[in-house]
């Protein structure tokens, strides 16, 4: 074992050298997480068979599991994280990245016809999130949280069925799940979603570019002014790209982003994160 990395999800990540080739082993020893990691492996395997411009997916070499544990063995990617990458890239490289993201989502859209998804799917998901949130005493005692949940319940009950593309998505496409290698971007940490829609991937990218989420979780110093300028550029270009082309985006991006932010709430523990979430959820509700 050469290097050990601990991710947020609680999985163990080890970089191992075998016959002079580096591999990543991602493992869970939490029985509750086994099914999720296996689903991640099959999504990643599926995505690695598609050709995307500039976007790549690490190859999976082996998956092993029993009911207590699961391990994925995959290609090691020599790369930078998003902060290291953005701190040294010029606007031309940012343009590459924007086009790669648009192209990636377009490829997903080609496999995801627009369909009617019953509003019950979103109401059920919301009720699950509301329940999980209110199970936490500090949330249940927070009048502002309760007010935001009430307003959200009203909104999800009023939208009717959703007409959105359904088929494939990465599921957790934040910058923390992209490894940057020159002008190639490697996607990791695929996640199954309650609706497999490319809209979820736009929502996750904009969780970073509009709400600066991944930097909030970043543990080291970084140039926040530079990052903000880059995020603003990516955000406005991605938003304009999809807004000028797709009715489903214009109508359902904000409700989908609202659900996304609400879903983080029950897992938030730090005070500053909870306060930030309340602020941006409230802003978003005012915009819908
Ligand atoms: N194939 C890979 N090649 C190189 N590094 C990798 C690879 N897969 C994962 N890593 C490293 O491990 C980190 C965490 O990986 P991943 O996102 O899959 O796990 P996680 O447990 O969900 O972590 P988190 O939720 O904190 O992002 C990555 O940010 C990266 O530094
Ligand atoms: Mg991750």
Walk across the major sheet and give the strand order: 1-2-3-6-5
Rough shape?
Answer: globular
> DSSP helix count?
11
Q: How big a fraction of the residues is strand?
A: 15-25%
Main CATH class of the largest domain:
Alpha Beta
CATH superfamily of the largest domain: Aminoglycoside phosphotransferase (APH), C-terminal lobe
Hetero groups in this structure are:
adenosine-5'-triphosphate, magnesium ion
* Radius of gyration from CA coordinates: 19 Å
Which H/E pattern describes the elements?
EEEHEEEHHEHHHEEEHHHHH
The separation of the N and C termini measures 50 Å
Corresponding CATH architecture of the largest domain: Alpha-Beta Complex
Helicity, in percent?
A: 40-55%
Q: Which structural category do the helix and sheet elements fall into? A: alpha+beta
Give the overall average pLDDT: 94
Biggest sheet descriptor: 5 strands, antiparallel
What is the count of β-strands?
A: 10
Number of domains: 2
Summarize it.
The protein has 288 residues and is an alpha+beta fold.
Could you list some keywords that capture this structure?
about 290 residues, alpha+beta, Phosphorylase Kinase, domain 1, Aminoglycoside 3'-phosphotransferase, Chain: A, domain 2, five-stranded antiparallel sheet, three-stranded mixed sheet, 11 helices, 10 strands, about 55% helix, globular, binds adenosine-5'-triphosphate, binds magnesium ion
Structural summary, described in words:
The chain is an alpha+beta fold. It has 2 domains: 3-75, Phosphorylase Kinase, domain 1; 82-287, Aminoglycoside 3'-phosphotransferase, Chain: A, domain 2 (Alpha-Beta Complex), CATH 3.90.1200. Helix content is 53%, strand content 17%. It contains 11 helices and 10 strands. It has helices at residues 31-47, 82-88, 91-110, 119-134, 137-140, 143-158, 198-209, 213-217, 224-243, 247-264, 271-287, and strands spanning 3-6, 12-18, 21-28, 55-56, 60-65, 70-75, 114-117, 162-165, 178-181, 184-187. A hairpin with a 2-residue loop joins strand 9 (178-181) and strand 10. Helix 6 (143-158) packs parallel to helix 11, helix 7 (198-209) crosses helix 10 (247-264) and helix 10 (247-264) packs antiparallel against helix 11. Adenosine-5'-triphosphate (ATP) is lined by residues 5, 7-9, 11, 13, 24, 26, 58, 74-77, 176-177, 179, 188-189. Residues 7, 176-177, 189 line the site of magnesium ion.
């Amino acid at each position: 074992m050469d290097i050990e990395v601990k991710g947020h999800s609680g999985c163990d990540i080890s970089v191992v050298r075998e016959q002079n080739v580096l591999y990543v082993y991602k493992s869970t020893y939490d029985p509750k997480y086994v099914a999720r990691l296996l689903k991640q492996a099959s999504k990643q395997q599926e995505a690695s068979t598609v050709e995307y411009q500039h976007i790549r997916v690490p190859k999976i070499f082996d998956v092993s599991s029993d009911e207590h544990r699961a391990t994925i063995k995959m290609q090691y990617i020599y790369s930078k994280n998003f902060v290291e990458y953005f701190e040294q890239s010029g606007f031309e490289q940012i343009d590459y990245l924007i086009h790669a993201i648009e192209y990636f989502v377009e490829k997903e859209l080609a496999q995801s016809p627009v369909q009617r998804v019953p509003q019950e799917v979103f109401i059920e998901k919301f009720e699950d999130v509301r329940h999980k949130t209110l199970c936490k005493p500090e949330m249940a005692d927070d009048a502002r949280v309760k007010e935001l949940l009430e307003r959200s319940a009203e909104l999800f009950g009023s939208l009717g069925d959703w007409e959105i593309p359904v088929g494939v998505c990465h599921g957790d496409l934040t910058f923390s799940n992209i490894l940057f290698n020159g002008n190639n971007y490697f996607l990791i940490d695929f996640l199954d979603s309650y609706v497999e829609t490319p809209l979820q991937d736009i929502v996750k990218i904009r969780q970073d570019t509009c709400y600066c989420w991944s930097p909030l979780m970043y543990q080291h110093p970084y140039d926040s002014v530079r990052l903000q300028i880059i995020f603003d550029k990516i955000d406005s270009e991605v938003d304009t790209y999809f807004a000028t082309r797709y009715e489903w985006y214009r109508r359902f991006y904000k409700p989908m982003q609202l659900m996304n932010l609400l879903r983080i709430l029950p897992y938030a523990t730090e005070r500053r994160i909870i306060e930030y979430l309340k602020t941006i959820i409230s802003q978003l509700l005012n915009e819908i």
